C-alpha cells in the first residue's frame, strides 16, 4: 500500500508540481461525492484561466506604462478635456470624480495631475490637509463617494448549499431510490403504515447523515472564511486628525496620509508627498522586475506593490476595485489553495479501500442473490415470483450499496480539513495565523528551527544601559536624567551626539490620539531616541537646525543607516550608525575628551574593539555613532561617503530574554527539534543570549556569517551538524543554511524572519514563520505562518498543534479502518453462510455516520498534550499507516469479528433466547454490540502506543459530546425507533452484555500494545549535532 501511495499520491507541502497534482487526481477512483470530497482541492482548470486573466491585466499595465512614457512627449496640457463633476460629488464639497482619479493614476498621467495643481492641488480637491490628514467624521462620506478599500470576493455559501452538496452522494441517491421503491412496494403488500417503515427508515437516516455532514462542512467554511479575512487584514500607519495611528487596510479612504517604509505593501493607489530614496517593486502588478524610483517627478504609487527601499508619505487617491490591484485580486482568488500532503495521501487510502469495498459489495450482492435463487430452485419456485421476492432482491441491492457507503471512507480526506480548521482556529487564539493549510501539517514534522534573536527570543523592549564616549564607559540609568553623562563630556560633543541621534533616525516623535507623545519606529531606534530625550534633546529643534539632503535607510545587508544634512553655512555633514564593527572600520578619527576630532590609532582601535566585545558579552546590542564633515558641498552627493568618519560613541542597548523562552527551547530539544539562532547581531551578544536561552551548549559551534560564507561545501557539511549560532549573518547566509539543511541533511526546517531580505529563506524553508509585530508585509507574504506576538513560545505551540493534527488523523484512520474491515467481513461472511446480512441498511448508515462524520469530529479535533513534545519528529519519507496502527487494526478486527461471528451463528443458545422474537432480539443485540465495540474502539484509538487511553479524555469536550451523543442516539434507535431501524427493545441484561463485550476491547488494546513491532521503513533519520542527546526516530513513536 505504501509503495502505491508513494508512487501515485505524493506531493510536496510547498509549491507542488503541476504533474504531481494531476497524477493523484487521475489515480483517484470511486468517489461517492466529488463536490464534497474535492471542495477544498485546487481547481487546476480555474487556476489556469485565472493565470491567463492575470497576465492579460499585467500586460495592460505594462502597455499603459510604455504608452504614458511615449505620450509625455506629445501631450499638450492646454487641450485637456475637463471632466464634469456629478451633482453628488459637488454637494459633498469634493472637486474631482473618483473615476477621473483612477484614470489619472492608472495611466500615470502627469499632465492630468498638474492640471489639478499637483499633489497639493489634488489634496485640496479631495478636501484634506497634507499635515493633519483626514478628519475621522468625514470617513463615511468619503467611503460613499470614493468607495471602500475592499475587493470583490465570492459570497459565502449558505447552509442550504452544503445540504445540496451532501445530497450529491451517488450511493445515497441510489439508496433514496431504493427506499422510495421499498415504500411503494411495501405499502402495496403490507398496507399503511407498516409497509412504509423500512423505506422511510432509510430516508430518515439519509436525511440525518446529510444534515450532520452539512453542519460540519458549513462550520468549517465559516472558520476558513474568518481566517482568510484575517490573512488579508494589514494594518497601516496613517495620519488622521493630526495624529499618527494604525488603521486596518479595509478602513483606508481616499485622502488618507499613509506612511511607508521598507517591506511595506502599498495599500492603495496614491501620490508621493515626501520621502527619501523611495523605490518600489512593481513586479507583483506589472510583472517587471525592475524597481521604480518614486519622487516628485514620478509620484504615482500603485496598490499591491512593495517598498523595496527608503521611506515616504503617500496621499491615497483610489481604493478597492478602482485600483489595478483590486482587479488583479479577483483573479488571484480563483482556483483555490493547493491541497496538503495528508489530504492527497488519504485520498489514496480512500481509493484503495474503496476498490476493496466495491469488490466486497458486488460479491455480497452476488452471494445473497445466488443463495436466494438456489433456495427458490430447491423449492421448485424458480418460476414463481411475487412482490415479496422483488423486495428481497431490492433489499439485497440496498445492503450491497450500503456496504459500499461504509466501505468507501469518504471522510478520510475530509477529516484532514476538519482537523486543520480546528487547529488553525485554536492557533489563532494562541497568536499564530496560519496562512497556508499545509504549514500546520508540516510543522508537526519540523526537526529544526532557525530563529532570529531580536524580538523572538528577546522582548524587543530595548533600552540604552551603557555608553562608551571620550574613552570612558558610563552606565545609564533611566532615573538619573542623563546627569552623569552630561557632566562627563564637553558641551560641543554633547551637541554632536544629539545631532547624530536625532538627525540620523527613521523614527518619529508624534502625538497619539490621547495627546501623549509616542516614539514610532524600530525598537533600536526608539531606544536611541529615548536616550536622546533623556539627555535633553528635542527632535523638532534638531530637525529645524539643518536640512536633510539624502538618507540611506538601514537594511540587513549594509547593517548601517546614513544621512547627509546641510549644516549652517555652505557645508554638509554625514552621520552614520549601525553594527559596531562595520562603523568602526569606516572611522579613521575619534572625538577626544575635549570634543575635538583626532586621528584614531591602532591601539585605540583595539581598545574600542575590546569595549564592544565587553558590552556584547553582557548581552548588550552594540551600536556605533559616527560623523563626517564634507567641506566641498559642490561634489556629487548622490552617495553618502563610506569612509574617513569620526567615531562619536559606542552605545550598549539591553534587550532582555523573553520569559519562558528557555523552557520553550528545552521543550523543543525534548521533542527532537534542534534550535539554531541566526542573527545579525555581534557574535558575543548572540552567544550570551543563546547561552541564556539554552540554545548554545558546550560542544556547539557559534560562527559569524562571513566565516560561514567563506567555507567550502565540504567544510559546511562538517560544521552544520554542530552549528547552533550564526551571528552577523546576511539574509543570503540564512538562505544557504536552510537550503543545505533541507537538501543535504534531509531536515524539515522552520525559519523565522521579519525583514524583506528574509523572504528568500522564508520561501525556501519547509515552514516560513514571519513576525507579526516586527515583520514587514513582504516577509508575511512569503511566510506560511505569521507569529502575531513575535514570541518563540508561540512557535512551539505551532509545532505542538502540527503534531496533534498528524497524530489525530492517524487515530481516525486507525479507527475507521477497523470499522471498515469488521463491517465488510461481517456482512460478507454472514451473506455466504446464512444468506442474509446481520446489519440492515439503516443500521449500516448509522454505523457509517459514527465512523465518518462523528468519528472525525471526536478524534480529529483532540487538543495536543505535553506528551506529544516528548517524541521525535517524523521524517520526510514516512509510512503514514504504521506497523503499530496495523497491529491495533488487525487485533481489534479479529476480536470484533470473532465475537460477532459467535453471536451470529450461536447467539440464541449463548443468550438463552427461546421466545418467538428471538431472531429479532439477536439481530438487535448484534447491532448494539457492534456499535458499542466501535464506541470503545474510538476510546482505544485516542492512544496508539500508550496504555492509558483515558488521559485528557474528559478535557476534550468535543470528544465527550460525540461519545454521549452516540450512546444516547443508539438508545433511541434500539428502544424507540424499532419500526424504522428493524430493532426491538432489549432487556437491561442484554444492554449490559453489549456494553461489556464492547468494553473488553479496552483489555484487548492493552494486550496488543504489549506486542512489540519493528519500526517502519522509509523513515528519514535526523542527525543531531553534538551537545544534544539524540532521540530515537520513526513515526511509530510519534
From TrEMBL:
Its EC number is 7.2.2.10. One of its GO terms (molecular function) is P-type calcium transporter activity. One of its GO terms (cellular component) is plasma membrane. InterPro entries: ATPase_P-typ_cation-transptr_C, ATPase_P-typ_cation-transptr_N, ATPase_P-typ_cyto_dom_N, ATPase_P-typ_P_site, ATPase_P-typ_TM_dom_sf, ATPase_P-typ_transduc_dom_A_sf, ATPase_P-type_domA, Ca_ATPase_N_dom. Keywords: ATP-binding, Calcium, Calcium transport, Calmodulin-binding, Ion transport, Magnesium, Membrane, Metal-binding, Nucleotide-binding, Translocase, Transmembrane, Transmembrane helix, Transport. Residues 113-187 form the Cation-transporting P-type ATPase N-terminal domain. It catalyses: Ca(2+)(in) + ATP + H2O = Ca(2+)(out) + ADP + phosphate + H(+). It is found in: Membrane. Residues 1018-1038 are annotated as: Disordered. The chain crosses the membrane at residues 170-189, 195-215, 352-374, 394-423, 817-837, 843-863, 957-978, 990-1008. SUPFAM superfamilies: Calcium ATPase, transduction domain A (SSF81653), Calcium ATPase, transmembrane domain M (SSF81665), HAD-like (SSF56784), Metal cation-transporting ATPase, ATP-binding domain N (SSF81660). It is a multi-pass membrane protein. CDD domains: P-type_ATPase_Ca_PMCA-like. Catalyzes the hydrolysis of ATP coupled with the transport of calcium. Belongs to the cation transport ATPase (P-type) (TC 3.A.3) family. Type IIB subfamily. This is Calcium-transporting ATPase. It comes from Nyssa sinensis.
